[in-house]
Design a protein that fits this description.
It is a single chain. This protein is of the alpha+beta class and 158 residues long. The protein folds into two domains: 77 residues, Phosphatidylinositol 3-kinase Catalytic Subunit, Chain A, domain 1 (Ubiquitin-like (UB roll), Roll), CATH 3.10.20.90; 76 residues, no CATH class. 47% of the residues lie in helices and 16% in strands. The chain has a five-stranded mixed sheet with strand order 2-1-5-3-4, covered by helices on one side. The protein is elongated, with a radius of gyration of 19 Å. The N and C termini lie far apart (66 Å).
Length: 158
Amino acid sequence: MRVNVEIITGTFINTEVSETATVKELKEKIAKEVQLSVRRLILVVGHEEERRMVREDEDETMLINLGVREDSHMYLFFKHPDLVYKEERSQEKGDGACMEEVSSEAESNRGNGQEDEEAKAEIYGGEENIEMKNGEEDRDVNVDYREKEKKNEEENKG
């Protein structure tokens, strides 16, 4: 059966899968197409009224059991590589860190130079786009820094 996957960037992937294909099998096909890890892929299935994100524990579920039919339209989103790394690390340690903690920690690391260039190239579509994005991140960090400085000054006055 043919399924249409719309990536958050507006790009479409039209792919063929068997009637008994699982979520994992579809993710593996898509991962090859977009050249990303299967762990970074987030699928959203269903019609407008009943759209939902496919959970990771549903990877062995057949697509047909999720309501996916011939020419079904679904959406694809990506997890940030820092988030995937933190999730994997917390699973290895077995510390039970919740997704919220991992997400906030990954967000706090954004833009402070801890991301490696290869991950940035993967996110921003190649090395040629990294310089432009780095400039945007630098502006964001400068704005955040100025806001923190202003807040600190106000706290010190009071």
